[in-house]
């Protein structure tokens, strides 16, 4: 599943999952340094959206029962700059 997870989400939700994820991230408190724990993280879209929007240095801990999902999330994570 991991290889096509993002594509499957896009097709099954008619890309609405991106809007839902963005709305969720916007409702999180992003002003102070904090750690997000993303349970059932999949390929990390919500966690990385959170890190992109954070106003302070933050971190995210991704948890998923699928090691393959976390491997894809890890690869995605290399694309995002870290706060300095």
Work out the number of β strands. Answer: 2
Q: Give the end-to-end Cα distance, rounded to a whole number of Å.
A: 35 Å
Q: Return the string of H and E elements.
A: HHEHEH
Main β-sheet, in a few words? 2 strands, parallel
Q: What would you note in describing this structure?
A:
The chain has 84 residues and is α+β, with helices and mostly antiparallel strands. A two-stranded parallel sheet has the order 1-2. 19% of the residues are buried. The mean pLDDT is 88.
List the helices and strands and how they pair.
Layout: H1 5-13, H2 16-26, E1 35-39, H3 45-53, E2 59-63, H4 67-77
Parallel strand pairs: 1-2
Produce a short descriptive summary.
By secondary structure, the protein is an alpha+beta fold. Helices cover 48% and strands 12% of the residues.
Provide tags for this entry.
single chain; 84 residues; alpha+beta; 4 helices; 2 strands; 48% helix; globular
């Amino acid at each position: 599943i991991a290889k096509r997870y993002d594509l499957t989400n896009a097709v099954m939700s008619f890309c609405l999952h991106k809007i839902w994820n963005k709305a969720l991230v916007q409702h999180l408190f992003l002003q102070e340094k904090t750690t997000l724990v993303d349970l059932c993280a999949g390929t990390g879209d919500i966690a990385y959206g959170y890190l992109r929007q954070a106003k302070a240095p933050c971190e995210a801990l991704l948890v998923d029962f699928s090691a393959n999902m976390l491997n894809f999330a890890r690869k995605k994570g290399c694309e995002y700059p870290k706060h300095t």
